[in-house]
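Annotators were shown the component list below and the corresponding predicted structure, then asked to write short factual statements about the assembly.
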Amino acid sequence: MPVHSDVIHQAVKTKLAHRGVRIEDIAHIVYELQRVYHPQLMFSECVASVERVLSKREMQHALLVGMELDELAERKQLSSPLQELVEADEGLFGCDETLALGSVLSYGSIAVTTFGYLDKYKIGIIKKLDTKNSDHVHTFLDDLIASIAASAAGRIAHKYRDNEEKQGFSSF
Ligand code: MG
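Structure shown to annotators:
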């Protein structure tokens, strides 16, 4: 029997909390990214946008896969040489970015370019996760958080344009 999407959604939220990431942490990144373009943007809109992205099945699956691999690497339960590759967060490994990028694609080019920006200029919780310490492995999670934030930012950019057009502020 297929797993109900509510079960998956809840598992993702529980796991994110367990891995030390709050929805608000991701929303802060979204706020930083978008407030320059939309000064009236409210933090609560960023939280709502992150929640919407997290309700997407593709994103949930990517998160479950990535967080599981991070945890297995933390417990030294992957087989060699994958264990060493994930544990070392080897720069040329690339599967972490590829998994995260896959989930961003459905949100359009703004989300994709924003993901690239966050990959380079890690901000907020991404920087915290990317900072290596001996106890934790966040090889996949830092990229996945960038993916959620970039997607939520892309959503907001499109939503604001839609609203402007509805209100007749469109230039065309
Ligand atoms: Mg990574």
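Statements collected:
1. Residues 89, 96, 139, 142-143 surround magnesium ion (CB under 6 Å).
2. The chain has nine helices and no strands.
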